[in-house]
UniProtKB/TrEMBL annotation, chain A:
Subunit structure: NDH-1 is composed of 14 different subunits. Subunits NuoA, H, J, K, L, M, N constitute the membrane sector of the complex.
Limits of the NADH:quinone oxidoreductase/Mrp antiporter transmembrane domain: 164-469
Name assigned to this protein: NADH-quinone oxidoreductase subunit N
Phylogenetic placement of the source organism: Bacteria, Bacillati, Actinomycetota, Actinomycetes, Streptosporangiales
Gene Ontology cellular component annotations, sorted alphabetically: endomembrane system; plasma membrane
Coiled coil: none
Length: 543, 649
């Protein structure tokens, strides 16, 4: 506001920007830009602590600002939009943004962890794997501190994604989030070819899905004459833009909904758009996998909830059957495939797919209970999964080199390292939805929402699927505790302060959200209303 | 602070409970004490090795003492003021969904609390001796405490969600304790089997809760039962059947019974506490607690009775076929719980009988298991009854206590089991009509089976000739083991009369379960046709076992050439008749049933597992690793999504 008052008018309609409401995004963006400058001007030896410090401060500041914004929202008011209706700032968005900021902060701890002066990332990503040049860089102790600006930009995209209030902003957020992640996936220090393959796959398939999203957005624009969510909703209620008569524009809208859905379902990893997840989760450096499995999932589901509840809220009858099918496919197929996985990271990837299916049941509910359930589930699952991946980073081959994900080799881990295996057991019990863990409250919330909305068959499938998943979580626990340790079993490297902290945070969050979820539940949208009522969606230009 | 609660059949009971005393408002201590024990022992690590087991034993005793205080507090109130809700804290609250971690103290729950803490305390004491040499003793006691805490949560919960928490908790503790001797692969497998079969049952309970919340708008007992009269038949039937599935899993009823026999891989005190006296009866508790739902769904209630009857007979036959003393007892547990489930399937008229039998069964079955543990202790952990025999003289205390438990379970008149079994039989015949006749006859037949297999066990173990392995030198167990057995045998003798005579227990429970108290007529029990029939089958069962297992020496392994048949030719004839008429058909029948058990039932269960694995491999093949095939899958998915949306037009 004050800027508009003080500066000379350069356009006829200067955008009215509420800088305070944009501050969390701008802080992360500014820190990212600053980090790029550090890369250019600060000597290599001093970059790392500086980069970590700036990234951590920016994420903390973003979280603090989100909390302050949520606190300053007047009672009974759901929120507003900023930047000419491009971004929403409401309770739902603020909850998701706060969750993402915290999850990113925790993941940052994992990313910053170093062992014997080496982090999880390639010494010099441009060298050919296995070449002399690579060895020289490793010996010289080179490192990619570019990881930190990339992470910051990815987090910026994640923060924007669920807040976007029109399809263009959402698309930009999608790309801002995805592009750095494609790069980060290919930076693993060990098994580099594998990591690069994962990055290329992720990039190709991600581009493919973005095209679907964009194509769908274009069709919706053709139908509604706007990309703004509020205007699309109004157009849907009115039967399409003025050029259409008697609903003959509906195929355009439905195709649009379908294609946008494909783009978003790819990001959350629902079947049949899930194939990338196991390969990418396994190939990427584990700290990056943790970030993707937590932050990206929250952001993608945030966007998905907004798109289905706000612009397409009036067409629920049309899209619900599609999500029914996708949710059933996801819960059934992923759970079944997971049973025969032998690698822990792949197993966690499939588990993430199954969890996406569980959350989809809450979307299908199409109610504010469903919205609240999905939000709680995302927060609960995020912290648990980061903790689980943190454990994975500690289990390595005999020489302490690369991570050892092969389940058969984990025999007896629980007897040698009871604390570590105990923490992982807690995370797995939470994934399985055992009471007193956050996973139970989350599952209860989403399933209860789905049953209330009349989707009982879906819940029966979900509960059956969760029984199958309980089987493979139990198998990990069995292998760790009930089998004799192998002579050439894995080495568990000592958890550094950062990794130890991540595991402790994961344990604390899993237990707290299971034992005393009240304070977090209070932040969620109240039930009994239209889910869209919990989301601010002014039309363009009025924000 | 304790506040008034709506006794959940509020319509009849009218007045609510008065504000509670300090004893009642701190009822959470019942749970907190053993839970603290588990935490201290698990977190304290090796430092607690030397005294941990003593602390872990003291805490359930303290819980028991507290429960007795609560009982007297309740007895000091009017009958309809004995149902008290004790709020602890608000667990989950969002929108219309509000679930408190509240406890419900009423005659039904306090009966269970007393059983759990009393038998639990005795078994802790017994374990001090039994596990003295075990390197994992501290862990064992921690798990036992955890189990007691979870079981108390289950029976004290004021709503279905908290009940489910206890339900899962006892499942977890049971899993940890069955697999306690992890180095035995059979124990690890048994633990897994128990866990997975129980998950199937848990799903039923969870779905039932979901349906209650959506259709009845509540998950608390009082809220659900108030909504029952206005609910549709379909809803109640669905909830009832889902609850029954949950009960079947936990209580090892058909078709989810397969885990209980394997669960005997756990240490014997665990079998006594969890797999005989308490956890396996949770299903009976669940059905009684959910009484109003089942009364609103007669079809579900009938299913309950049928499941119970089938399990009762199958369990009895399995128990008759096993040579492993613990597995035979486990079959007996299945059978007895089947009898209780049958009784609760009769409706309110059977509730008191079922709960009374549950409590007396808790005593004598725990006593029998502890006796079996004592015998195993003496026989170098051998479990094959064909290698026992003649132990009466070397183990007099075990013999006497086991013997009293044996007489009680087969229903010798005036001992505990007789009172409660007679109550069930008379309740079943009291239903009237064909259903009453069928169910009542089934119970009588079950009682006959019980007499046979328990006599067989008793004769093979304590009487007859010594068939010991070389190097086995049986001895009586230490005091810490025999003392609990003695106390339990007192219960085996007198508890039934105490509960049933003068309708004491029925009057105590009446306000909670809304049953018109069923008067127990002592004279009638001896003169009525069904009473005489029950006595008749008792005699037949015992005599049959005597003829087969005591009169004729028992083979140490597979039956081989029998020198007695040569020496005493006169008896040979009778033996052959016995064999031809009773034993062979019986053996064929038991073998057939065991074969059905192992090949058909397990085959179906295993078949499901195998087909999931095969499907998993098949689907896994779709994960080729080629980006192009992934993209093709996505394209296919996109076409399906678009088609689903557009083609509907």
């Amino acid at each position: 506001m004050f800027l508009a008052d003080n500066l000379p008018v350069v356009t006829e309609n200067p955008p009215v920007l509420d800088w305070w409401l944009l501050a969390p995004l701008l802080t992360v963006f500014g820190a990212g830009v600053l980090a790029v400058l550090f890369e250019a001007f600060v000597p290599a030896s001093r970059r790392r602590p500086l980069q970590i410090g700036v990234a951590a401060l920016a994420l903390l500041a973003a979280f603090a600002m989100v909390v302050l914004q949520a606190g300053s929202l007047p009672e009974g008011q759901v929120g507003t939009t900023v930047a000419a209706g491009a971004l929403a700032v409401d309770r739902t968005v603020l909850f998701l943004q706060g969750t993402i900021a915290l999850l990113a902060l925790v993941s940052l701890l994992l990313i910053s962890e170093r062992r014997d002066g080496r982090d999880a990332f390639a010494a010099q990503a441009a060298t050919v794997p296995g070449s002399e040049e690579e060895r020289a860089h490793i010996l010289a102790g080179s490192q990619h501190t570019e990881v930190y600006p990339l992470v910051l930009f990815a987090v910026l995209g994640m923060l924007m994604f669920p807040a976007a209030n029109d399809f263009l902003t959402m698309f930009i957020a999608l790309e801002v989030m995805s592009l750095p992640l494609y790069l980060l996936c290919g930076l693993a220090r060990r098994r580099r070819l594998f990591s690069q393959e994962a990055a290329v796959k992720y990039f190709l398939l991600g581009a493919f899905s973005s095209a679907f999203f964009l194509f769908g957005a274009a069709m919706v624009y053709g139908y509604a004459g706007s990309v703004n969510f509020a205007e699309i909703r109004a157009a849907v209620d009115a039967g399409g833009a003025a050029i259409f008569q008697e609903g003959n524009g509906e195929p355009l809208l439905l195709l649009g909904i379908g294609l946008v859905a494909v783009g978003l379902l790819f990001k959350v990893g629902a079947v049949p758009f899930h194939n990338w997840k196991p390969d990418v989760y396994q190939g990427a450096p584990t700290p990056i996998t943790a970030l993707m499995a937590s932050g990206t999932l929250v952001a993608a589901f945030g966007a998905l909830l907004r798109v289905f509840f706000v612009p397409f809220g009036g067409s629920a009858g049309q899209w619900e059957p599609v999500l029914w099918i996708v949710a059933v496919l996801t819960m059934v197929a992923a759970a079944i495939v997971a049973v025969s996985q032998r690698d822990v990271k792949r197993l966690l990837a499939y588990s993430s797919v199954v969890h996406a299916g569980f959350i989809l049941t809450a979307v299908v509910a199409g109610s504010s209970e469903g919205l609240a359930g999905a939000m709680f589930y995302l927060a609960a699952y995020g912290f648990t999964t980061v903790g689980a991946f943190a454990v994975v980073t500690l289990v390595r081959t005999k020489d302490g080199g690369q991570e050892l994900g092969d389940l058969d080799r984990w025999s007896g881990l629980g007897r040698r390292h009871p604390a570590l295996a105990g923490a992982l057991t807690l995370f797995l019990l939470a994934f399985a939805g055992i009471p007193l863990t956050s996973g139970f409250v989350g599952k209860f919330a989403v399933f209860e929402a789905a049953v209330s909305a009349g989707a009982t068959p879906l819940v029966v499938v979900g509960v059956l699927s969760s029984a199958v998943t309980a089987f493979f979580y139990m198998r990990i626990i069995l292998v760790m505790f009930f089998r004799d340790p192998e002579a050439d079993g894995p080495t568990v490297v000592r958890a550094g302060a950062a990794t130890g902290g991540v595991i402790a945070i994961g344990v604390a969050a899993t237990l707290l959200l299971g034992l005393y979820p009240g304070p977090v539940l209070d932040l969620l949208p109240p039930s009994g209303e239209e889910p869209a009522a919990a989301m601010a969606d002014q039309a363009a230009g009025t924000g | 602070m304790a506040v008034e609660s709506h006794a959940y059949l509020a319509a009849e009971t009218g007045a609510a409970a008065a504000a509670g005393s300090a004893v009642l408002s701190n009822a959470w201590l019942l749970i907190a004490l053993p839970l603290a024990g588990a935490a201290i022992l698990l977190l304290g690590g090796k430092r607690t090795d030397s005294w941990g087991h003593l602390l872990a034993t003291a805490l359930p005793v303290a819980s028991f003492a507290w429960a007795v205080l609560i009982l007297f507090d309740l007895l000091g109130r009017a009958g309809d003021a004995r149902s008290v809700a004790v709020p602890v804290y608000e667990w989950i609250s969002v929108g219309s969904l509000s679930i408190g971690a509240d406890l419900l103290v009423d005659p039904l729950s306090i009966s269970f609390v007393l059983l759990i803490t009393f038998v639990g305390s005795l078994i802790h004491i017994y374990s001090i001796g039994y596990m003295a040499e075990d390197p994992g003793r501290r862990r064992f006691f921690a798990y036992l405490n955890l189990f007691v805490a979870a079981m108390l949560v289950l029976v004290l919960a004021d709503n279905f969600v908290l009940l489910f928490l206890g339900w899962e908790g006892v499942g977890l503790a049971s899993y940890l304790l069955i697999g306690f001797w992890q180095y035995k692969p059979s124990a690890a497998t048994a633990a897994k089997k128990a866990f997975i079969i129980n998950r199937v049952g848990d799903m039923g309970l969870l779905v039932a809760i979901m349906i209650m919340f959506s259709a009845l708008g509540a998950v608390s007992f009082s809220g659900v039962f108030e909504a029952v009269p206005g609910a549709g038949d379909g809803v109640l039937l669905a909830v009832g059947l889902c609850l029954l599935l949950g009960a079947c899993g936990k209580s090892a009823q058909l078709p989810l019974q397969a885990w209980l026999l394997d669960a005997m891989e756990g240490p014997t005190p665990v079998s006594a506490l969890i797999h005989a006296a308490t956890m396996v009866t949770a299903g009976v508790y669940l059905i009684v607690r959910s009484g109003p739902i089942f009364e609103g769904a007669p079809a579900a209630q009938t299913t309950v009775a049928v499941v119970g009857a089938a399990t009762m007979i199958a369990g009895g036959i399995i128990a008759s076929a096993k040579d492993d003393i613990k597995k035979s007892l486990a079959g007996s547990t299945m059978s007895q719980i089947g009898m209780m489930v049958l009784a609760v399937g009769l409706g309110p008229v059977g509730y008191v009988a079922a709960i009374a039998h549950l409590i007396t069964h808790g005593f004598f079955k725990a006593g029998l298991f502890l006796g079996a543990g004592s015998v195993m202790h003496a026989m170098n952990d051998g479990v094959d009854m064909r290698r026992y025999g003649g132990l009466a003289r070397v183990m007099p205390i075990t013999f006497a206590t086991f013997g009293l438990g044996y007489l009680a379970i087969i229903g010798v008149p005036l001992l505990s089991g007789w009172w409660t079994k007679e109550s069930i039989i008379s309740a079943a015949f009291g239903v009237g009509g064909t259903q009453g006749m069928l169910l009542g006859s089934a119970v009588v037949a079950g009682a006959g089976l019980t007499a046979f297999y328990m006599s067989r066990m008793f004769f093979m173990t304590f009487l007859g000739e010594k068939r010991w392995d070389e190097g086995v030198h049986p001895h009586e167990s230490p005091l810490s083991m025999t003392a609990p057995m003695v106390l339990l045998s007192v219960g085996s003798v007198a508890l039934g009369a105490f509960l049933v005579f003068g309708d004491r227990f029925a009057n105590f429970l009446a306000p909670t379960i809304g049953a018109h108290p069923h008067h127990f007529d002592l004279a009638h029990a001896f003169t009525a046709p069904y009473g005489l029939a029950a006595l008749g089958v008792l005699v037949v069962g015992v005599v049959l076992a005597w003829v087969v297992y005591l009169r004729k020496p028992v083979a140490r392994t597979a039956p081989r050439g029998n020198f007695v048949t040569v020496a005493a030719s006169r008896e040979l004839y009778g033996n052959e008749i016995n064999e031809g008429l009773f034993m062979r058909p019986g053996q064929v029948l038991t073998k057939a049933l065991v074969a059905i058990e192992t090949h058909v039932v397990d085959g179906i269960v295993n078949g499901i597992g195998t087909s999931v694995r095969d499907a998993s491999r098949g689907l896994g093949r779709a994960q080729t690793g080629f980006a192009r095939s992934y993209a093709l899958t996505m394209l296919f998915g996109a076409v399906v999504v678009a088609a689903t949306l557009v083609v509907r037009l």
